[in-house]
C-alpha cells in the first residue's frame, strides 16, 4: 500500500505540473510583461504599451476607434528585438517543451506503477528524469522573469519599427501582471519536481497485476 500511496503523491505532482505548464503557455501568449506609460509622445498613440515576449500592444483609453487596442506580433527575423527578449523567448520555449516531456515521462512511470509492471531501474529513472526536467523548466521561467525585471528596473528601451508608433522608451515603465503569473508557473514546476523526489521503489519491486479467478 505504501507504494501506491507514493504513486498517488506522484499523481498529485503530475496535476501540479500540468497546471504549471498551462500557466506557462498562457504567459507566453500575453503581452503584459512590461507596462509602458506613454504620456508625452509627439504623435499618437498616447496611453499605454504592453510589451510581451512575442507581441507588443498599445492601448488608447480615449481613442474614438472601435478597437482601442492594437497589437503587433514579433518574429524571429525581427532585428529590433533586444537581447533580453530573445533570451527570454528561448528559455520560455525550452521550459514549455521540457515541461511537456516531463509530463509524458511521469505518465509512463505512473502507468507502470498502477498496472504493476514495475522494473525498479526503469520506473525510477522515469520519475528521476521527469523531476529534473520539471526543475529545469521552472528555473528557465525564473530566468525569463529576472531578465524582464532587470530590463524594467534599468528602464531599457526598444527600437520598435516606426509603423508601430511607439517611442524608444516611455516616460515610465513597470512590471506587468503576467510576470506574477509566470512566477506562479515556475513555482508550480519546481514544486512538482520536489514532489517527485520523494518517490522510492522498494527493494522487492517486481509486481504483477492480480488475475481474478473465474
Number of domains: 1
Indicate the CATH architecture: Up-down Bundle
Determine the strand fraction and express it as a percent band: 5-15%
* Number of DSSP E strands: 5
Tell me the span between the first and last alpha carbons: 25 Å
Number of helical runs? 4
Low-confidence stretches: 202-214
Structural class: alpha+beta
Note the main attributes of this structure.
5-stranded antiparallel beta sheet, alpha+beta, Butyryl-CoA Dehydrogenase, subunit A, domain 3, 4 helices, 214 residues
Can you put this structure into words, describing what you see?
This protein has a 5-stranded antiparallel beta sheet with strand order 4-3-2-1-5. The radius of gyration is 23 Å and the shape is elongated. It is α+β, with helices and mostly antiparallel strands. The chain has one domain: Butyryl-CoA Dehydrogenase, subunit A, domain 3, CATH 1.20.140. α2 runs antiparallel to α3. The relative contact order is 0.22. A hairpin with a 3-residue loop joins β2 and β3 (55-59). The chain contains 4 helices and 5 strands; from the N terminus they run αββββααβα. It has helices at residues 2-29, 83-115, 120-153, 177-197, and strands spanning 34-38, 47-51, 55-59, 69-73, 172-175.
